UniProtKB/TrEMBL annotation:
Keyword Signal attached: yes
Taxonomic path: Bacteria, Pseudomonadati, Pseudomonadota, Alphaproteobacteria, Sphingomonadales
Domain TonB C-terminal: 227-306
Source species: Qipengyuania atrilutea
Residues annotated as signal peptide: 1-23
UniProt keyword Signal, yes or no: yes
Name of the protein described by the UniProt record: Energy transducer TonB
Amino acid sequence: MVLHKLLSLCAAASLTIATSATAEREVETLDATSPWHLDMAEHKCRLARAFGNEDTPTIFYLEQWGPSERAIWAVAGPQTATFRADRAATYSFGPNGETSEFKFFDSAFGSFGKLLSAHTAIAGKAVIDPDAIEVDAIVVDDRGGSAPGMPQLDGEAAAGVSRLTISQHGRSDLVLSLGNMDKPVKALNACIEDLVKYWGFDPEEQRRVASPPEITNFRTVYREVTKTYPKDAIAEGRQADFYLRLNIDSTGKVSDCVLLNQTVTDGFEMAVDPCSTFMKSAKIKPALDVDGRPVRTFFTTRIVYRRS
């Protein structure tokens, strides 16, 4: 079952595509052509808006798969076709938001075309997760699972963000005029709280979690996960990016595991679901609340399959 919730946060802006030359770089600016749309599915919340030409729009979205201080941003449309996956690019949420380099792999977002995507806090500085692990051909990012309580995006700080600029050597900068981001970000936070309720957890109880669940044999489990990387994918350079969520009871036992497909290249097929590895091999200390009592909670992690 999939739940859908649609929210119009502001009226559609007029269409403007402006190309201007500065002393250093050319800039292509796209204005919004739709209101913000907020959608809640079984496992994620997505905030999306259309930009540019109404007949061939460019889509921007922010997406979260659970409570986190970071989100996935993504852009797909005619203007993304000339970005190259073999070159680093830079994104900047301006004027007072996060700026960082990012890399992407060749994938498409339906009929909208090439997808550019990265993780962001939107407002603030880029943070390199010290718990991210690279094992053979897999990068594991447990940012979502390592944060206690109910972390969320900083809606107040997002008031200082009104545009996204994507830059790469050899082409003009792409700028999306997002509009003030405080209300959209706060709406996304509210959606994630509703999502946690849908999963069967009490958000207030989760806010009292002081110590998150801990996979004590973390590296061993992820080394087992590397064995699920398809051999053909390694040979041909195919890649994938997944989210995984474990529901963990107050004894540390995994009661459920959900593997969520985020982005994959064509022909990427796993022989073994990583959930089976977690269910079989993970040794977990349960989460503790502020009073030191074990509590039922969830653990989310990102699994990124990359060719070494």
